[in-house]
């Protein structure tokens, strides 16, 4: 799993959690018993062909308010996650060391990452843009 995937999953929840109803809230729905009433019978001459079951459409993914989620996670912590990639990674309990930041920069398409302040500012904005591209609601103040 890449560094960006860890960031995305920490904010949006893991894909496994999305597939399970109630998993995001830490609850699982109890299994429902199958219906037990018998199907009505009709004379063979008047029986119509069985109707095709309706195709289940996947529910649209709810847009995640990235800023609100991070603000909630950051309550009581002295981190500048709004502009610092290091603090953002710390907030998400991801190792913010140089090697991980260099790997993240490569994932974002940057091969000349050196860890400068300018590099880190660029990377923070790029991560926010990628979160928006992956279904997150990210205000312009975090991407520009």
TrEMBL record:
User: Pro residues bias located where?
Assistant: 30-41
Q: What are the Basic and acidic residues biased-composition ranges? A: 1-20
Query: Which Pfam families does this chain map to?
Result: DUF3597 (PF12200)
Q: Which residue ranges are recorded for the region named Disordered?
A: 1-63
The residue ranges of the DUF3597 domain are 3-139
Q: Where is the composition biased (Low complexity)?
A: 42-60
Task: Report what the protein is called.
Answer: DUF3597 domain-containing protein
Species classification: Bacteria, Pseudomonadati, Pseudomonadota, Alphaproteobacteria, Sphingomonadales
């Amino acid at each position: 799993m890449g560094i960006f995937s860890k960031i995305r999953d920490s904010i949006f929840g893991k894909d496994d959690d999305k597939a399970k109803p109630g998993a995001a809230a830490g609850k699982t729905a109890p299994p429902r018993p199958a219906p037990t009433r018998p199907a009505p019978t009709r004379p063979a001459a008047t029986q119509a062909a069985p109707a095709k079951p309706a195709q289940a459409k996947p529910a649209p993914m709810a847009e995640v308010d990235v800023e609100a989620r991070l603000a909630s996670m950051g309550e009581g912590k002295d981190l500048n996650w709004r502009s610092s990639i290091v603090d953002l990674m710390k907030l998400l309990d991801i190792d913010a060391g140089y090697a991980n930041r260099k790997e993240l920069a490569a994932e974002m398409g940057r091969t000349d990452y050196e860890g400068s302040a300018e590099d880190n500012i660029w990377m923070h904005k790029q991560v926010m843009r990628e979160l928006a591209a992956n279904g997150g609601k990210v205000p312009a103040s975090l991407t520009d």
